[in-house]
Amino acid sequence: MIRKLLVAFGVVELIAPGPIIDVCERIGLENPETAKLRPRANLLARLEGAAFVWVLVRGRDRSPAVSVLLVAAGVLAAVYPDPLIRVSQSFAYENTSELELRPWVKPAARLLGTLYLLVVVLSESGSAPDRPTE
Question: What residue ranges do the domains of the chain occupy?
Answer without folding.
Answer: 2-125
